[in-house]
């Protein structure tokens, strides 16, 4: 294959990926939403419109892991500034009968996720792999409260801590749908890359 043809194929490939990414961003752009303040995110009057979930941005309550006095701090979402310890966020919802879901994509390490005192997910020293995980069965209490707790015991040094928008919350079916669409997007990109490599080998 000539250099010009190879260059053309690469350009088409990159353009296709760009179009897919722009379409994805347009379809999943988050609406204006409340922001957590002092460890509380009030969604009791929030309508979960398109795309049907919110980012858990804002101020979380945080207790450092090695703090003997258990001092509670307020910080903006899980971050590299304060990684190991206990993060807590109180979510207030209106519909107490529905199930809600949580989409999490945190760094490699040892941590657990709990809601209203019930442990929902946990990694260990033997299993630190942290690809995106969907927890689709969060049940608010009779007052519409979901107390979300992230216990970060150890974060791998090589693992980059994601942005606050690695944590999403919404009605269960919406969170499951988000994960399905992202999986489809990843498979589409992988297929395009495979076709690109095959075409370069053949031609």
Label this structure with key terms.
203 residues, alpha+beta, seven-stranded mixed β-sheet, four-stranded antiparallel β-sheet, 2 helices, 28% helix, elongated
Q: How would you sum up this structure, described in words?
A:
α1 (3-28) runs antiparallel to α2 (172-202). The protein has 203 residues and is an alpha+beta fold. The mean pLDDT is 76. The protein is built from two helices and eleven strands, in the order αβββββββββββα. It is elongated and about 65 Å long. The protein starts with a helix and ends with a helix. β3 and β4 form a beta hairpin. Strands 1, 3, 4, 5, 7, 8 and 10 form a seven-stranded mixed sheet that branches. A four-stranded antiparallel sheet has the order 2-11-6-9, covered by helices on one side. Helix content is 28%, strand content 31%. It has helices at 3-28, 172-202; strands spanning 40-42, 54-55, 59-64, 73-76, 85-92, 100-104, 109-115, 118-122, 133-138, 145-155, 167-171.
- Please state the average pLDDT score: 76
Order of helices and strands: HEEEEEEEEEEEH
Count the helices. How many? Answer: 2
**What is the gyration radius calculated from CA atoms?**
20 Å
- Largest sheet properties: 7 strands, mixed
Helical content, roughly? 25-40%
Taken from the alpha-carbon principal axes, the silhouette is elongated
Number of strands: 11
User: Helix- and strand-based class?
Assistant: alpha+beta
Oligomer class: single chain
| Regions with little confidence, pLDDT below 50 for 5+ residues | none
């Amino acid at each position: 294959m000539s250099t010009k043809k190879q260059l053309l194929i690469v350009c088409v490939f990159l353009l296709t990926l760009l179009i897919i990414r722009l379409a994805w961003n347009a379809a999943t752009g988050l609406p204006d939403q409340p922001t957590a303040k002092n460890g509380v995110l009030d969604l009791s009057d929030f309508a979960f419109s398109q795309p049907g979930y919110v980012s858990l941005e804002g101020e979380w309550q945080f207790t450092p892991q090695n703090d003997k006095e258990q001092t509670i701090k307020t910080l903006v979402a899980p971050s590299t500034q304060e990684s190991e310890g206990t993060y807590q966020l109180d979510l207030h919802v209106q519909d107490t009968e529905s199930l809600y879901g949580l989409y999490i994509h945190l760094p490699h390490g040892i941590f657990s996720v709990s809601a209203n005192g019930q442990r929902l997910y946990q990694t260990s020293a033997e299993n630190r792999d942290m690809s995106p995980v969907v927890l689709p069965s969060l049940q608010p209490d009779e007052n519409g409260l979901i107390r979300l707790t992230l216990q970060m015991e150890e974060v791998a040094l090589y693992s980059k801590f994601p942005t606050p928008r690695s944590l999403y919350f919404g009605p269960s079916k919406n969170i499951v749908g988000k994960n399905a669409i992202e999986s489809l997007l990843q498979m589409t990109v992988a297929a395009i890359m495979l076709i690109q490599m095959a075409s370069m080998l053949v031609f």
